[in-house]
Design brief:
The structure is a homodimer of 343-residue chains.
Chain A lengths: L8 H8 L3 H8 L10 H13 L6 H8 L4 E6 L5 H16 L3 E6 L4 H13 L4 E4 L6 H9 L4 E4 L10 E4 L1 H14 L5 E6 L4 H16 L9 E4 L4 H12 L8 E4 L2 H13 L9 E5 L13 E4 L2 H16 L9 E4 L2 E3 L8
Parallel strand pairs in A: 1-2, 1-3, 3-4, 4-5, 5-11, 6-7, 6-8, 8-9, 9-10
Antiparallel strand pairs in A: 10-12
Helix pairs in contact in A: 1-2, 2-3, 5-12, 8-9, 10-11
Chain A binds a DNA duplex (16 and 16 nucleotides) through α2 and α4.
Keywords (chains A, B): DNA-binding, Transcription, Transcription regulation
Protein name (chains A, B): LacI family transcriptional regulator
GO molecular function, one term (chains A, B): transcription cis-regulatory region binding
DNA sequence: CTGAAAGCGCTTACAG
DNA sequence: CTGAAAGCGCTTACAG
């Protein structure tokens, strides 16, 4: 009966012998300000409740040019990092009265651009985007139009926007320093091809730590893989790092999935972790504490990041009622486990 | 310019000096069947493309009573199992021309019921639901109304519907047999409180395997935790199983998250896995092959499950063009790793 | 306080 | 082949 016996506004109006206007007003909590009698209001509300009235969102959205919906565009909903963001964003948005529309760009800038347009056409009221960072034009358009949006996890350095990101530079520096403090000197970095600012910052953090310890930068120790093909490339990368005995005594992996496949490969090669090669991971998987060895990781504040993004967005949608800082760089946390040995 | 310079149907019609009807027809690929000249069609299509015309989905949906959208209701988008389903469903649906609306029920039947209604109000054309299995009434309503939907991962045994699930009984039986073949005889089961059919089947599979080996069922070895509070309860549960020396020589965990927290607890107690206690997991986490020890797991065919669900649903939405089996029980796969020792 | 009316942007018989 | 018109279900000035 959910579909068939649908009640419409006009049905309520007819049955109760009031105008559609009155019904609409009351059901939108505008009864008092329009001085509709308490009696009439109660009558309408009771009837609506009893008959399970729910307004057709399409009609409502079309009429008001609004939808009480926000869009979330992420690279990939299957990735644990982004699915956690999705979960927190959904929860927070729901608490504030908004539904969220998710979509994955699969790191494809064209698809991301399409998604942005498609979401606008669905009349979302705002957008949270973990961008491929290759859609500056679209981002600028949104800004021009004063369309509310906030970038999450990844931002554009050459455009002033709302954003919530993590401090990639310091996270990466801290974890590299951790290896240095433990006496490691030949530190490899397995990362992605630059393009994402976050990845660039992780590289810079690594540099900076080495620099503080007066260690000359050896570019042979930095391997940049492609996003699409990292699973194959990592074998070569690790082969490269281990080409000569003692060429490397530790590896920083700059994403959780690089860590997973990297560790898998190290195990296949019977490399002892951490004795021969210590490893650390930027970002983690939920089982990293159970892995052999438990992996020292930089943990990102996913929940805070998500909540703050939603707060900034909805505050803007609702007309800047509160004074919230609209650019945020959050601290990560180093979780020390056993993949680097001990002091 | 995405928002402001929006082009509407009437703009195109006016500029090109044709009717709105013509524009709408052509843009919906009904130009030929309405015998609109190739010339006019080309003119319209070119103009639309050039000016980035995208129809307002709200208006279109309202007018047609359709939305080219399907809804996916899952317990929790943050859970890796469901986020994978979401990813595959999104991909498959997109390939077939549909957008998907996700929402998490958080295992709350009321919320699930609300979500169903809310999605209907957004005019989704069909629903894929991993249900809490406590909304039989809503499910029956959908059936009565002939509203297209398919249950995924969890189905109602007392209602005939479309569904795609995994063979929980045999998956569980196989993994229990695996332990038996390795000589384990005191096999604990850490599972959830019954309620979900899948969980019930896993229990029955466990029973059946024990039965085949003439092992008397000991109910002290089966511990049923609550979904909300399993993290705390698991400590007690494992304490219970290990209360007496040699009370248990192996444990079957019936979900991936129970395995994670269980193994964490076993490690905390310095129980040697698999020497003292072997463990197996129903369903897995992506790092289970890296865990210490790598965990023998029942792997669910998530991708197939998702794809088939979408196929069944869209086939029904589009009027049963193809003859597809509408109830499917898929095989799981036992991935033998090291958490049970070897023969 | 109320009701008739216009409008949101599209689709789709229907008459020509 | 084309165009005027009604309709999807709601919201919201506006006149009373």
């Amino acid at each position: 009966m959910l579909v068939m016996k649908k009640v419409f506004l006009k049905d309520i109006a007819k049955k109760l012998d009031v105008s559609k206007t009155a019904v609409s007003l009351v059901l939108n909590n505008k009864g008092d300000e329009n001085k509709i009698s308490q009696e009439t209001q109660k009558k309408i509300i009771d009837y609506a409740k009893k008959h399970n009235y729910v307004p057709n969102q399409l009609a409502r959205g079309l009429s008001r040019g609004k939808s009480e919906t926000i869009g979330l565009i992420i690279p990939n909903i299957s990735d644990t990092f982004y699915s956690k963001i999705a979960g927190y964003v959904e929860l927070k948005a729901k608490n504030l009265g908004y539904t969220v529309l998710f979509s994955s760009s699969n790191e494809d800038p064209k698809k991301e651009a399409e998604l942005i347009r498609s979401m606008l056409n669905r009349q979302v009221e705002g957008l949270i985007i973990a961008s491929t960072q290759q859609n500056l034009k679209e981002i600028e358009s949104l800004k021009e139009d004063k369309f509310p949006f906030v970038l999450i996890d990844r931002h554009y350095t050459d455009s002033e926007t709302n954003y919530v990101i993590v401090d990639n530079f310091n996270g990466s520096k801290t974890v590299t320093e951790h290896l240095l403090k433990l006496g490691r000197r030949k530190i490899g970095l397995i990362t992605l091809k630059p393009g994402l600012e976050a990845i660039k910052q992780r590289l810079l953090g690594y540099h900076s730590a080495l620099n503080d310890y007066n260690i000359e930068f050896n570019k042979n120790l930095v391997l940049e893989l492609s996003t699409e093909n990292y699973e194959d490339e990592i074998k070569m990368a690790i082969g490269e790092l281990l080409k000569f005995p003692n060429s490397v005594d530790s590896i920083v992996f700059s994403t959780h999935y690089l860590t997973s496949v990297g560790l898998r490969e190290l195990k296949r090669l019977n490399v002892k972790v951490p004795q021969e090669v210590a490893i650390v991971s930027f970002d983690e998987l939920s089982a990293f504490d159970l892995v052999d060895p438990p992996i020292t990781s930089v943990i990102q504040p996913v929940k805070d990041m998500s909540n703050i993004a939603v707060e900034i967005l909805i505050n803007e949608i609702e007309g800047m009622k509160e004074n919230i800082e609209n650019t945020r760089i959050l601290d990560s946390k180093l979780e020390i486990r056993k993949s680097c040995g001990t002091f």
